[in-house]
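Model: Ready when you are.
Researcher: Fold this.
Model:
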Amino acid sequence: MRAIADLGLRCPEDISVASTDNIPGVRGLRPVLTRSEHPIVDMVNESVRLLVDRMKLDGPAEGRTVVFQPTLVVGDSCGPVKVDD
């Protein structure tokens, strides 16, 4: 966002910015950054549980898919899409 300002652009008027997960210091940014947050603690806990379960098996493990839903945190860093005429 600093580079955007250095180029003379404005966020979100000229360009929108969104991020994945928290970045250190993100709460101090202006405008507030739009981002997705992921349940890291839940993901780690599930990974450990799956690993322990797999270690208990004598044979090959059955494949599993685990989906964790991210949360969209809407900030002020994204604006509406502009369509040039």
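Researcher: Now this one.
Model:
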Amino acid sequence: MKLSHKLPITPWRATSTWAFRPRMILPLLIGLSLFGFGEGLLVQSHWGASPWTVFAQGVARHTHLSLGWSTALISCVVLLIWLPLRERPGFGTIANVVVIAYVLDMTTYFLPVASDPLFKIVYILAAVEVIGMGSALYLSTNLGPDRATAS
């Protein structure tokens, strides 16, 4: 099997990171929502989380913000750090900040913490699947960061 390092050409793929069209909204929102839901599953499993979410949990604990709000705050700081690097966010990058933070908050608020080891395993396996599907949808829209050209 040969691995490809190129995104597939899909009907909802943007030609530029700000060339947003209505047909892109569904894959973008579903992808980001799945990603946020998967992160919430990991948190509610109490058996692990991604490094970004672990950092956000620490920020949330010290600032008394919700996990979603602390995730959004960290994302905004990172976007500000992009400025001197001449990295420009795309429409999907901005949507990423909002949608993932919101869905992560809703998931951790409404989904019960898994107490039984079997449910913890189910949460983790489901998280891996939905994060993978969400990433595939979001990335295939091609609405992520756009490198600024050096002059």
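Researcher: Key takeaway?
Model: Confidence is low (pLDDT under 50) at residues 147-151.
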